[in-house]
Design a protein that fits this description.
The chain is an alpha+beta fold. Helices cover 41% and strands 10% of the residues. The chain has a 7-stranded antiparallel beta sheet, with helices on both faces. Strand 3 and strand 4 form a beta hairpin. The longest helix has 27 residues. It is globular, with a radius of gyration of 19 Å.
Length: 292
Amino acid sequence: TDRPTAQGGMSDGNAGVGAAAAPAGYTGEAGEAEWAARIELAEAYHTVAKLGQKDWGWTHCVYNHITVKLPGVCSSVLGTPGPLFLINSFGCRFDEVTPESLHTVDLDGTIVRRGEAIPGVKDRGVLLAGFTIHSAVHAAREDVQAIFHTHHPDVVAVSALKCGMLPCSNEGCLSLALLSPKRHPFEGTATDPEEKTRIAAALGPTALSLLLDNHGVVCCGSSVPHALRNIWVFTKACTYQVRALAAAGGDPERLVMPPQEVLDACLERELKQQKDPLGEVEFEAWARGPAI
């Protein structure tokens, strides 16, 4: 076969998914659209795995998720009211994900199209906690196409700070432009369906990232590369903040912050920039080789 296999991908830390012809069953407009989404999402999982090789914490064993919403035509062909989205099979490491292994699920968590099994990986379906967080946002925000949720140590550290994200770096200023002014309080493992309403309300109608107290972050985008760019910048901001606070003895008053007018200008520029197709350049660079 000339398409990606469960055995291919990350063995040397550099290889990616790459483009491949759609296999049987992915014909017509809907099939081609779904296959393209599978290729891109699998590449995103591999990219995060590569980031994790350079910076421990990007991956969390078999936990955390990246999801992408499928085009509406896929829902009509599969005979399921939309939206539908792709998510990794629980128990599969990020570097093991293939386009074929991704599950297509609806907002009720039903697997509409089950991904192919990966040799040596037991099929456990979809992790409820991951489904809860992602479906909450996919259901509430038509503009959001892709979502990343991670437990990077620096992100979790910032999520535990009362001050939250600080504009103590360029990346911090960029991230604040997208961050919801609200935070989602910690409720334990996200397995309560009623929590979805509270997550969606905290994110709001326009923000592209949300701090989950004592938990991590949800970052969104209009595409997989866009969402990956946003969470990459957000994670960098958290790392810089954690290191700056450590150097300052934990006292935010000892940090240099930009004047309010400078911060306001940064926020305005980033919001304007978000209207462009961001993340494509970085995504292509990561796909070519080791994550940097």
